[in-house]
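Good morning N.,

You mentioned wanting to compare the apo and holo forms, so I went ahead and generated the holo version with thymidine-5'-phosphate. This is what I fed in:
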Amino acid sequence: MEKRKQMYEGKAKKVYETDDPEIVIVDYKDDATAFNGLKKGSIKGKGVINNQMSNMLMQGLEKKGVPTHFVKELSERETAVKRVEILPLEVIIRNISAGSFSKRYGVEEGIVFDEPTIEFSYKNDDLGDPLLNDDHAIALKLCTREELATVKKYAFLVNDFLKEIWKSCNVTLVDFKIEFGRLKDGTIVLADEISPDTCRLWDATTGEKLDKDRFRRDLGGVEEAYEEVMKRLKGQLD
Ligand code: TMP
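and this is what came out, ligand included:
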């Protein structure tokens, strides 16, 4: 597979074309942003960890029946993935109150829900990724009803899988954000990444935050937290 010209540069990844029109290469950066790009920084080694962690988790998800964009890990930071058209939806599952949920509804962080919740944001930086419901997504033609049903089904399967695997690492999965894409033939697959950038992960014993909230909230020990969760996950999956 031959890496060709850069198609796109996002906040955390670059995407390149290849000689295969259905395959692209993602290249994970150490750059970190928060609050819609307002806060900028770098987390040393993050690109390597996010690339490898996302690939490990997506391969596990494939086995559980969730199709993903993953094709092949090419290097520490680079992975070949299926070319998709990203659905402009951020799909967020929550098991425990935190972050914008706590802020929006005026509740403390750490309330364990009886059942996981799902919500969607419109992936649009200019608008600040506003929340939207199913009908809004359909009205805006972001996806079809059928696609939305598929996305929801997969999102809860992803939650079941991630909750279990993180539990075995003595880590509590609080919430996470995932994105889906459409292959050329219309198949919906899990895309983007699953990493400490996109999940809230708390140590199950101490409650210590082991994810990007350390960067967002200036808690220090950011690199160490990413390394710690990666080490625990590798210990489980090896
Ligand atoms: P929130 O509580 O800020 O809405 O975040 C919910 C989850 O989504 C949390 O695990 C962090 C993740 N997330 C992203 O991956 N990207 C984003 O841009 C935001 C705002 C949250």
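DSSP finds six helices and 14 strands in the chain.

Happy to go through it together on a call whenever suits you.

Best,
F.
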